[in-house]
Design a protein that fits this description.
Blueprint lengths: L6 E5 L4 H12 L3 E6 L2 H13 L4 E5 L5 H14 L5 E4 L14 H29 L2 E6 L3 H4 L5 H21 L4 E6 L7 H8 L7 H8 L8 H11 L21
Parallel strand pairs: 1-2, 1-4, 2-3, 4-5, 5-6
């Protein structure tokens, strides 16, 4: 599934699932731009990719800030060219009982997970329209499909991403742009391990997740990256508006 010559932006691309996606798209020949609030990690990743012969750019971006997103998109155009692939992976989570969720907490989750997805898509879609080809891949969550206790704001934000994906796919299909979403489920990431260490998921959470999965293991970031690489490819041109579950059977 070569992506030679394609320019891809991956938000939240310096860690966890985003890191794996960045690495996979670079391996497939894409020129990658890593948008992340953690610029130091993004820069270290880009240095490794460049050492391996890939074209890569690190940009410090808070996706909830439209001015930062627009400036970052301009930088990518200036240094790499028109953006043809966007992977919206930046996201945050929180564990709070519903009655304890403050307006500020609700707004912060929505601002990054849902508004950030909107900001980035709107900032780059003109490039795809100009090229007559584009791929937008939004990382949502299986929590939006099954629900998640003490994560009402998070699940709602990711459900919004799924609805956003379907609506945008209808609007952009004739322009040669596909829009799909991958809702991961039970992926062993630093975010999941932090939640487990904080006691939000119970004792031995990772092991319990693995044993509960129909496939008998927790997912890896590379599982998501593989699906993302396919959706970004030429071969996936007849797939749009779809929810591609990569969750080991957690949600069917």
């Amino acid at each position: 599934m070569p992506l030679h010559g394609r320019i891809a932006v991956i938000t939240g691309g310096a860690s966890g699932i985003g890191l794996a996606i960045t690495q996979r798209l670079a391996q497939n020949g894409a020129r990658v731009a890593v948008f992340d609030v953690d610029y130091a990690s993004a820069e270290r990743l880009v240095e490794r990719l460049q050492a391996d012969g890939s074209s890569a750019l690190a940009v410090k971006v808070d996706v909830s800030d439209r001015r930062q997103v627009d400036a970052a998109a301009r930088e990518v155009r200036d240094k790499l060219g028109l953006i043809q692939v966007l992977v919206n992976c930046a996201g945050i989570e929180a564990f709070e009982p519903f009655q304890s969720i403050t307006e500020a907490s609700w707004d912060r989750i929505m601002s990054v997970n849902l508004k950030g997805t909107f900001n980035c898509a709107q900032a780059v879609v003109s490039d795809m329209i100009e090229a007559g080809w584009g791929r937008i891949i939004n990382i949502s969550s299986s929590s939006a499909q099954s629900g998640a206790a003490r994560m009402t704001h998070y699940a709602a934000s990711k459900a919004g991403v799924i609805g956003f994906t379907k609506a945008l796919a209808l609007e952009l299909g004739r322009a040669g742009i596909t829009v799909n979403t991958i809702p991961p489920g039970s992926i062993d990431t630093p975010m999941l391990r932090r939640a487990a260490a904080a006691g939000h998921l119970g004792r031995n959470a990772i092991e319990q997740i693995a044993s509960a999965m129909p496939v008998g293991r927790a997912g890896t970031p590379e599982d998501i990256a593989a699906a993302c690489a396919f959706l970004a490819s030429e071969e996936a041109g007849y797939i749009t508006g779809q929810v591609i579950g990569v969750n080991g059977g957690r949600y069917m």
